[in-house]
Structures are given as structure tokens and as C-alpha cells.
Inverse folding.
């Protein structure tokens, strides 16, 4: 039997980044971000939290011998860099470079968590030539947006809204609960200890008549009688097949009971867990 080639999807996007340099770089980032910077790996994905454990940015840190490349996957690069600058003490052997754009390439599949695949970084190189030489087919922007939603990748000013924490957003694997103190560590430890979250991120889908509609009522109810508010829609994307998909923060106590909920404008909504989410 001849096996058919399985089409592989690749995500290429430009991100803002900067270098963290100096012999104290790992120690410095270990006290700011949620993951363990002392792991023997080529790169680490982590969260930057505020002192109350609220997610402010999703980061990826590539480890080189003499410096660390910090990539802002989702967040405000100016806020990140300004905060980091203010955290450097005179005794710290750390300095930050100016920010600069880089291209990042990784595989992205709907049936595998996005964090499973190792990215490739292009600094002063042409990623499109690399893709052409290696016969890599890139996802178009519309298909990329669909996969980002299906993977529940949080976005700034949508899921990263100044209220959610990384555990609610399915980023449990980006938090090291065994390392020392870091920003938001007390909140993360408490949530882990009591094993309780009030809400979790979910992917939802519904049928629509007009592809270009705008959603005004973002409340999700238990049923069409609107007995209880069970969640809030945080983002959505209309598809050409008269279908709309999106992300929502759903109250956890309803998630084991039902799969279908109700929205005033969309009607019945199907809610599912994303393959890209990792909860404790």
C-alpha cells in the first residue's frame, strides 16, 4: 500500500525581540518569568506575570552561550522591555539590547499542541528562501488565524486582558512550580495547591447567516432561557463556510455538565477543549 504524503502546516511570523546579555542573564530572567531558565534546552517558553499572577506576556527565550534572545510571542514589547530595564540592579551583570524584529518558523497542526514543535529563528536571514529550498508550504494568514484559535493561543487585548492567569489559559506547562521565587509565584502556588480555577479557556463554534456580522453580546448563557451566564466570548473569526469560531473564558463548574450553550446573537454554541491547552 502506498502511503499518501501528509500535508504539514508551517507558521511563519515576524515578532519583536531583544537580547538579554551578561553572566547574570539566566538568573535575572529566572526571577521574572514562570519557567526554569536553568534547563539544558535550546529554548524555553514562559509567561511574564504581574505580582498578582495575571498574564502580561507570552515569551520564548532562545539560549545561546553568551546571551539570551527573548521573543515576544504575545504582549506589549515596550512594557516588557521597560519593566525588565527597571528590574536591573546596579550589581546585576545584565544588559538589554535594543529591540529588533525577527522571523520565527514552526510547524502548527490542529491535532498536536503548538508547543510540541521546535521553532527555527531567522536573524538577518531570509526565511522565505529557506522555505523555498526546503519545500516548506506556509500557512496563509486566514488559515493561520483559524489554527491559532483552534490551538487556543491567547492574544493581547483579547484573552490576555489584564484579568486572566496562565493556568486559566491552558498554559500550565509553561509554569515551573518547583523553582524559586518569581513574579506571581505566590498566586501560582496557591492555585496549584487548592487545584481550583474559576474559569478555563475553550474553543467554541456556531453557525451564522452573514459572514461579515459583528458580535455585540459576548455573554454565553446556560441555555436559551438565559438562566445563568456561563462564560464570555473573548475573540471570534467568521469562516467562509457560514460558520464562526472563537475563544471564550468559561466558568469551570459548567464544563463537565454540557457541551452546548447559548448566545443571544449566535444561538446554540458548541464548546470544546483545545488540543493546545494544558490544565492541571
Amino acid at each position: 500500500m502506498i502511503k499518501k504524503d501528509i500535508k504539514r502546516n508551517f507558521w511563519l511570523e515576524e515578532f519583536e525581540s531583544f537580547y538579554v546579555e551578561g553572566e547574570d542573564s539566566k538568573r535575572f530572567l529566572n526571577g521574572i518569568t514562570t519557567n526554569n531558565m536553568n534547563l539544558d534546552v535550546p529554548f524555553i517558553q514562559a509567561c511574564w506575570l504581574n505580582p498578582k499572577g495575571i498574564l502580561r506576556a507570552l515569551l520564548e527565550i532562545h539560549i545561546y552561550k553568551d546571551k539570551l534572545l527573548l521573543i515576544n510571542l504575545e504582549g506589549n514589547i515596550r512594557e516588557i522591555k521597560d519593566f525588565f530595564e527597571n528590574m536591573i540592579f546596579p550589581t546585576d551583570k545584565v544588559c538589554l539590547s535594543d529591540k529588533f524584529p525577527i522571523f520565527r518558523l514552526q510547524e502548527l497542526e490542529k491535532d498536536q499542541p503548538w508547543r510540541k514543535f521546535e521553532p527555527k529563528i531567522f536573524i538577518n536571514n531570509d526565511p522565505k528562501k529557506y522555505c523555498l529550498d526546503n519545500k516548506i508550504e506556509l500557512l496563509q494568514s486566514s488559515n493561520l488565524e483559524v489554527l491559532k484559535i483552534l490551538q487556543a493561543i491567547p492574544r493581547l487585548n483579547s484573552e490576555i486582558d489584564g484579568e486572566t492567569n496562565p493556568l486559566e489559559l491552558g498554559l500550565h506547562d509553561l509554569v515551573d512550580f518547583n523553582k524559586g521565587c518569581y513574579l506571581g509565584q505566590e498566586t501560582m502556588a496557591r492555585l496549584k495547591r487548592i487545584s481550583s480555577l474559576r474559569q478555563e479557556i475553550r474553543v467554541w463554534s456556531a453557525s451564522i447567516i452573514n459572514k461579515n456580522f459583528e458580535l455585540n453580546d459576548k455573554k454565553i448563557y446556560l441555555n436559551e432561557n438565559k438562566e445563568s451566564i456561563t462564560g464570555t466570548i473573548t475573540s471570534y473569526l467568521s469562516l467562509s463556510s457560514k460558520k464562526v469560531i472563537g475563544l471564550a473564558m468559561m466558568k469551570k463548574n459548567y464544563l463537565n455538565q454540557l457541551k452546548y450553550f447559548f448566545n443571544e446573537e449566535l444561538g446554540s454554541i458548541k464548546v470544546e477543549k483545545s488540543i493546545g491547552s494544558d490544565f492541571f
